[in-house]
Amino acid sequence: MRNKSSLSEADSYKKIGEFWDDHDLADFWDRTKEVSFEVDIESEATYYAVEKNLSAEIQALAHKRGVTADTLLNLWVQEKLHEQTP
Prior knowledge:
Layout: H1 13-22, H2 52-65, H3 69-84
Helix pairs in contact: 2-3
């Protein structure tokens, strides 16, 4: 972390957390400023049921390959859909 937090004057995320554990933003409201930002969510998660024994096998294989189970499943589904496209 390069800069100190302007309100807490802390130089690490841990110290910032500790500061806010003991302080209330209401006590510093006059020292805040309005900001704006946009959030662009490009992906959406949809959940599908997977049998428990399959889930365990998928997680084990994903771990062995160094990826998440979500990533492994998405790759497999993409490959299968690609095979089905004429």
